[in-house]
Amino acid sequence: MVTENVSDCLRNLMSRGYTVINGIESGEYLNISESLGTVFDVQEISYLPGKNAKLHSCQAMSLHSDHPDANFVSWYCVSQSDIGGESLLLDFQDIAAHLSEKQLDDLRQVEVKFPTLEHKGFAVTTLLSKAGLYYSGWLIDPVFRGATKPCVLEVFEHLLEALPKISIRLEIGQSLIINNKRMLHGRSAFQGEGSRRSLIRHWIQ
């Protein structure tokens, strides 16, 4: 059951692209995610020394989207680092306000890879589509960074750096939910040695 307080938070999600819900239990977290759709991937995000994946490092993560099949992404804070680890958000609507219609059209031609859910390689979608935004800078085909089409990505990625970010430090028992088709997210670096930071992430379709 979703309480009235949670319902208010979810309305905020629909209007501004993200919401933070306070004081929930881990069991409630799954119920809240399932109220938005089907949870098709669950991942614990914690510091694991020696793991190559940046997800499990203590490094900062640049702004990006998660898997394009996820309409929403949610995180639940089990424990937090003493220093750093803030979630960083940027609304694509703020980026689009600085772009012309021609530049938006050009972004619709930029191809971005994403890993298949079956872990059998990569598929391709576009940075902008009718479904919304999908951006992972490290998965863009290098041809779109070549001499033929440098301009629109340079402008887009400059705006990613230049525009102010929303910074949210999740505390134990808080959940952050974003519209993955609208909001880009990343995180600040955090103190890795002895870090207790642990988040549970849901991809919701």
Secondary structure layout:
Layout: H1 4-16, E1 18-21, H2 26-34, E2 39-46, E3 61-64, E4 72-79, E5 87-91, H3 92-96, H4 101-107, E6 111-115, E7 122-126, E8 128-129, E9 132-133, H5 151-162, E10 166-168, E11 175-179, E12 183-187, E13 198-204
Antiparallel strand pairs: 1-11, 2-13, 3-12, 4-11, 4-13, 5-10, 5-12, 6-7, 8-9
Could you characterize the architecture of this molecule?
The protein has 205 residues and is of the alpha+beta class. Helices cover 22% and strands 31% of the residues. The protein is built from five helices and 13 strands. It has helices at 4-16, 26-34, 92-96, 101-107, 151-162, and strands at residues 18-21, 39-46, 61-64, 72-79, 87-91, 111-115, 122-126, 128-129, 132-133, 166-168, 175-179, 183-187, 198-204. The strands form four sheets. It has a five-stranded antiparallel sheet, covered by helices on one side. β6 (111-115) and β7 form a beta hairpin. The longest helix is centred in the first third of the chain and has 13 residues, at 4-16. The protein is globular and about 45 Å long. The mean pLDDT is 89.
